Structure formats: structure tokens, C-alpha cells
Amino acid sequence: MNKTLILVVEDDKPIRNLIVTTLKTHDYKYLVAENGSSAILEASSHNPDIVLLDLGLPDIEGVEVIRKIRTWSNMPIIVISARSEDTDKIEALDAGADDYITKPFSVEELLARIRVTQRRLTITQTDEQNKTSIFENGELKIDFMAGCTYLKGEELHLTPIEYKLLCILSRNVGKVLTHMYITQQIWGRCSDNDIASLRVFMATLRKKLEPEKNGVEYIQTHIGIGYRMLRIENNNIG
């Protein structure tokens, strides 16, 4: 039995049954909640490793469930919703969701998103346990204590804003960060000008991290939403 405990929050019975059957087939432990109130109760009582959350719940909006959970826990939350508008995705991600899957979805996609979240969770837990000041991802290395960044063993010369951006992305590796979240972290505000500046700084940072056109991609752009640092497996290098 997989040790990962997943809370499924879904009021649509056929979809809930599909998700539960998928988890059961792949030996995941799971809990079920059919509304927002039950979701908050189950999350606080059992502290699941991952939450799969529908937004359109009968009693409380899913975004509000995210906000309530975020007042006391950083447990990963993957939204599964029929709402496909960028505004809905941005609202959920800004509230604290870690990922967003749009219905209809494939079982393979759901399992892949869960695996990615598991890997990020394992890495985060390991980092916390080791209390390390070194971040490594593929051939990228950040020494937070020294404030230095290296790529393939060579030091990268980054501007203060580029370095801060890189730190924000690396501390949330695998997670989509919205424009609003990033600009708030960098400048303490979010305006159209700030988002335009962010795109410029992100472009210069990517040129330094990804100098080869067909090389490793460290930063993924989510158009209209934000950015995500990808976790690079060693066997994907070279």
C-alpha cells in the first residue's frame, strides 16, 4: 500500500468514483469529502499528504476551502475543476493551490500530477530535515547562504532581481506561481507595469539559465497565469 494519503473533495459522484477507483487501483490511501465543510474537517483531522479539490462545491466555494486550509497548513492542493478560464485558475493558484487540472481529464494526467507533487513533497521534506542551504536541480546549483548561483559548475552573474526571482522559483519547484504572487514577492505590489517588468526580468534570467536553444528547460511559462520551475531529472541532462 502506498503510504501517501490523498483527500478527494468532489460532490459529483461519477467523477468521485473515477478518482477513488484510480487511487485504489494504484494502491493510494484515500479519504473522501463531498462538500467544503467536510473537506476542512477531514484535512484538519487527518492531515493528508495531498488534497484533490473540486471548486464547485455545494456549500463552500473551493477557493474558500483553499484559503481556510492555508491558514494552518501547506499541504499540497491540486484543483480539479470544469472551470477552464484563466481567471479561475489564477484565483485558485493565488489562494494557495499548487496545481490545476481541467475537467475532463485523463487518469494518466491525474496520476502524473500526483507523482510530481509527491516528488516535490519528498524533496521539500528532505530539505527541511537536512536544513541545507544548497539547492540543486539538474546542473543548476544555488548556494543560498553565499548568495551564489552556478550552472554546469560555472558561476552565473545575476542581477539582484534575477537572483530573487530564481530563489522564489526554486523554493517552489514544480509549483505554478502566478504573476501576482511573484510581483508581490519582488516589489510588494502587482500592476500591469510590474507584470511587464517581470516578463523582461524573466526573459533575461532564462537566457542565462537556458543559453542553448534546444537545451534543458528550467522555467516553464504558463501563458496568462505565471511561471513554474521544472524539476530536472539527472537522466534528462546531456
From TrEMBL:
Q: Which residues form the OmpR/PhoB-type domain?
A: 132-231
Q: Where is the Response regulatory domain?
A: 5-118
Keywords assigned: DNA-binding, Phosphoprotein, Transcription, Transcription regulation
Q: Name the domain of life.
A: Bacteria
DNA-binding region, residue range(s): 132-231
SUPFAM superfamilies referenced in this protein's UniProt entry, alphabetically: C-terminal effector domain of the bipartite response regulators, CheY-like
Entry keyword annotation includes Flavoprotein: no
Q: Which CDD domains match?
A: REC_OmpR_KdpE-like (cd17620), trans_reg_C (cd00383)
Q: Which InterPro entries match?
A: CheY-like_superfamily, OmpR/PhoB-type_DNA-bd, Sig_transdc_resp-reg_C-effctor, Sig_transdc_resp-reg_receiver, WalR-like, WH-like_DNA-bd_sf
Q: Which SMART domains match?
A: REC, Trans_reg_C
Signal peptide range equals: none
Keyword Phosphoprotein in the entry? The reply is yes
Q: List residues, modification 4-aspartylphosphate.
A: D54
* Job of this protein: May play the central regulatory role in sporulation. It may be an element of the effector pathway responsible for the activation of sporulation genes in response to nutritional stress. Spo0A may act in concert with spo0H (a sigma factor) to control the expression of some genes that are critical to the sporulation process.
- PANTHER family in the cross-refs: KDP OPERON TRANSCRIPTIONAL REGULATORY PROTEIN KDPE (PTHR48111:SF50), REGULATOR OF RPOS (PTHR48111)
Q: What is this protein called?
A: Stage 0 sporulation protein A homolog
Protein source organism: Blautia stercoris
